[in-house]
Predict the structure of DUF3793 family protein.
Amino acid sequence: MGYSSFYNKLNSMEGKEYIETFLAYSLSLVIAGAKPAATLSIKKTNIKLYNNWNTYGPTFIKNIKLNYVELRDCSDATVIMVYDESILEKHLSTKYSMDFLINLGYSSDASAADHINTLKLRYEKYHCPHELGLFLGIPLNDVKDFMEYTTKECLLCKYWKVYNDSNIAQAIFNKYDEIKKYTINTLLKGNTSHRLALIIKNSFYENI
């Protein structure tokens, strides 16, 4: 897959090129429309990552038509959630998602932006509320089972812990792997980060 070649190339980059390439890869599943959102922990001890995120990161997120929210800022890291607003809105507006969120104190008459604000408040209070998984595209039944410390057997564990519908989950994992592999191979062909984001979106977004 060229992971070592990718990381060697990434680590050789500096400044804007470095952070934009890091973000394009880290957010490839969101760019592709395969996930509504993804979280990133920007470690403050990683000076190269932290400084370049602050200087160039938010502009790149905006330029590739995504949004982000800072969920938590502490002494050692800033945790952000990057999301596709239209996909997240659709994902959270299903009856099952709404019932679940309302039960946790979310408003019954709210937009995705309102839900994100509530998530941020709960993140600050609980440091990583379990419903975050729903925002990240994890199936609701698996989110619930994880929250409730289920005695069910964990059927798969990769992008999340799977307790239900393992065949469906495996198909999703395979799609995620395909997108990540495609992202790396496209980058190693010499495409810029902006070009890379456009290629990922054009290749996958309408087909998810």
